[in-house]
Design goal:
heterodimer; A: about 70 residues; alpha+beta; 2 helices; B: alpha+beta; 5 helices; 5 strands
């Protein structure tokens, strides 16, 4: 996602090496994706579900504006 | 004694044949208070040696403040994967430039993270995520900064 959009950056963090981060974000299972500090997505998921779900929580609409249809 | 077995090296070497654009691994380390910096450096050096398209650049986290600021590195060990692009009309030292996609790894790239590293190198080299057109269209709508932090463990 970071490659596709310059606004997106991505940190891959090895949780056991950075316990203070794991604690701050309450990492109890992996993978855990945290977006903009507050949005959480636990576990892995297929791309067609994972990306729309994350972006929707970030306020990016998944559909074309329904007002147009 | 290498960390990667001969078999692993052969497999990674074959995978890295798919690299197109050169990639620079910008690594941040420090001598003190970093249990995993040394092993991270060794892994990265072994990987970088497997392809002429890879370059390992090492910075001292405690000293190279300019690089730390440029890559926005928060802790060590850490590394960024950046694409090295050469301008066709380029001449002199400015002929190549870095494209930084904002991809960072924190911690030892072993186990699952090792696969992420190899995949990341290929994606950055190609300048393509390999995501579906649908995902790409959706991502094109992101117009404000998004910071993902993906937590994993080695197993």
């Amino acid at each position: 996602m970071a490659i596709e959009n310059e606004f997106v950056r991505a940190d891959m963090i090895e949780a056991t090496e950075f316990p203070e981060l794991a604690q701050r974000y309450a990492v109890y299972g992996v993978p855990l994706t945290v977006a903009n500090e507050t949005i959480r997505f636990e576990g892995g998921a297929p791309e067609p579900y994972f990306i729309p779900s994350l972006l929707q929580q970030l306020g990016v609409a998944a559909q074309e504006d329904s007002a147009e249809s | 004694m290498p960390l990667l077995s001969e078999r692993d090296r052969a497999a990674v070497h074959e995978e890295l044949e798919k690299l197109t654009n050169p990639v620079r691994i910008v690594f941040f380390t420090q001598a003190l208070d970093c249990d995993t910096c040394e092993i991270t450096q060794k892994i990265l050096a072994e990987v970088a040696a497997l392809s002429s398209k890879l370059e390992l650049q090492t910075h001292n986290f405690a000293i190279d403040r300019e690089a730390v600021a440029q890559y926005e590195i928060m802790r060590v060990p850490a590394f960024a994967l950046v694409r090295v692009e050469t301008r066709a009309d380029g001449e002199g030292p400015q002929a190549s430039r870095e494209r930084d996609y904002g991809i960072r790894f924190y911690g030892v790239p072993s186990g699952y993270e090792f696969m992420s590293l190899i995949g990341g190198l290929l994606d950055v080299s190609h300048g393509d995520s390999g995501l579906s057109d649908q995902s790409k269209a959706l991502l094109a709508r992101v117009t404000e900064p998004v910071h993902f932090q993906i937590f994993t463990t080695p197993t």
